[in-house]
C-alpha cells in the first residue's frame, strides 16, 4: 500500500455522514476552477475560491466547478453546504474506494465513476511495453444549473471538454448542464477504449512468446495483464448500470434531447465490457497454452534423455560382460575380438535407432 494511503478502517466507529478521506492524497492542495457559460458568453476562473463558486450559484446560469484534490475535507464540506448537498454525498466523494454508482437526491444527481490510467514500461512479450492499469475516482454532481466534478489528482482530466466550452464548438453551451455531465461521462468512457486497445496490443505480442518461448518472464507478464483486466472489469461493469439508469431518464434533470447521447455512451460501455470479457478469455487460454507448451518442452527433453539411456543399456550390458575378470574368455585372446565387440555395439545401437524411427519415436 502506498505511503499515506488511508484505509476504510479509519472510519470505524464514526457516525454516518462523517467525511474522512480514504485513499492517497494525490494533490498538494485543493484546486478549484470555475467555468460559467451561456450561448454568447464564457468566463473561467482558474484558481477560484469557494466564495466565488457560491456567488456564481446565486447569480444563476449554467456553471461548472472543477475540484481537484479531495483530502481537504473541511473545504469540501464548506462547498457542499453552499450547494445544499447531503453529508453522505461528501462522505462518498472523499472515499476514493467507491464503486461506480448513481444516486438520485431529487434536486441533484450524484455519480461516481472510475477513470482508468495506463502506465507503460518494458515487457517480456514486447520490449518497451508493459501496460499496468490503475483507477482514479471521479465524482459528478448534476444540478439544475450546475455541475460539480471532483477528482483525486492535480491533472486536468477534462481539458478537451473545457476547450470546447472556451471555443464554443458544438452544442455544449446550448444544451444545458445535463449535456455537460454527459460530455464528462463520455470523456471517461472514451479513455476506456484507449486502455483496452493498449492491453489488446500487448496480449497479441505475448501470444507468440507463449508458444515459442514459455519462460517465467512470460507467465509473469500474463499474470500482470490478468490483474489489469480484472481492474478494468471492476471499473466498467458497474458503469453499465449507472449509464443505463441515466439513459432511462428517471430524473427530470435529464432532458429528452440528452437521452440520445446517453444511449450512445451506453453502447460504448457495452462494447468495452464485451472486449474486456474477450481479453479475459484470451488470457485464460494463453495461460493454458503456456502450461501446455511448458509440458511439451519437458516431454521432449525427457524423450531425448530416454532414447539416450535406452541406447546405452544394451551397450553397457555388452561392456559389462567383457569387463569380467575370468581366466577362460576365448575372445580376449582372439586378435579380432576387440573390433568385433565394437561392431556388435554399433549394430545394436544402429538397429535400435532404425526401430525408434520406424515407430515415430524420433
Describe this structure in words.
It is built from 9 helices and 7 strands, in the order ββαβααββββαααααα. It is α+β, with helices and mostly antiparallel strands and 362 residues long. A hairpin with a 3-residue loop joins strand 6 (132-142) and strand 7 (146-151). Mean pLDDT is 82; it is low at 123-129. The protein has helices at 50-59, 73-83, 87-94, 159-167, 177-212, 216-247, 256-322, 330-333, 337-358; strands at 31-37, 42-45, 63-68, 101-104, 109-119, 132-142, 146-151.
Entry summary:
This protein has 362 residues and is an alpha+beta fold. Helix content is 55%, strand content 14%.
How many extended strands?
A: 7
| Broad structural category | alpha+beta
Low-pLDDT runs of 5+ residues are: 123-129
Strand order of the largest sheet: 2-1-3-7-6-5-4
Overall spatial form: rod-shaped
Mean pLDDT figure: 82
Strand content: 5-15%
